[in-house]
Amino acid sequence: MNIFKFFIVVSTIILVSSCSNEENLPSETITEYSPQSYHFVNMDYPVGMVMSPTLDNLVKINYDNNKITKRVGGIFYLSAGSGFSSTFTNEIYDELIYSNNLILINRKTSSTNFSISDFERKLVLDNQNRIIKKTIYQGNVYPYNDTINYFYNSSGQIRETFKGRLDLSNEKAKFYYNQIGNLDSIVTTKHYQNEPFYEKKKEVFSNFDNTPNPLKKLIVFEETFNRAISKNNYSKYEKFTYDSNNNLINTEFRNWTLQYDNSGNINFNLH
To answer: How far apart are CA 219 and CA 103, in angstroms?
Structure first.
């Protein structure tokens, strides 16, 4: 066998061996979760919100063709004389409508005993179905109209957000992640126009488990936004607020005891 033929034979053996090895490599399994419900206590609802004694306190998610169409369950604000700020009700819901690269979310009520203020959100998506802009109309909060723009890093994670307008009050938030893709912290600064910040907030997320995060689809809702970002699930939240001189003026802490099923999957219905 001459050198040329030997080279062809060896090259063929290497190529076949290489292809065989690639075929035998384990493929990564990517699971797309569609959570059906969650207990509000496990999410970012008001700290003083009390559970309803007559309901299961679960927020229910409805789907059509794997897209969220309705979220049933929300916050009912109580009168000052009740001694509590708010409670859970299943008579408030969010309705989602899809149109090209837009998602429209409107808050409504099924109750005939009370009414609610307008709360509408319009989400603009890019060609990777990531939120790049959120327009908010809230009838009882000034400013009534607000906008949040989202910016991403090379890994596809949210890197920064900008809320408001440069010629008025605005908020700038920077997102930081650890090496395995979990949200480490969010630092938000409040400004008037382009002046130095007059308030800073640092939110820290820790005590993550090793269980896949099933809430990715719920990034469209305010109360589940922080949980939806990470690869896994945090059980500790800390918030530190600073004044314009960077003096610490307030701290908040929350801890959760996360519950799991027999297969090790997290169960946000339990608390």
So the answer is: 12
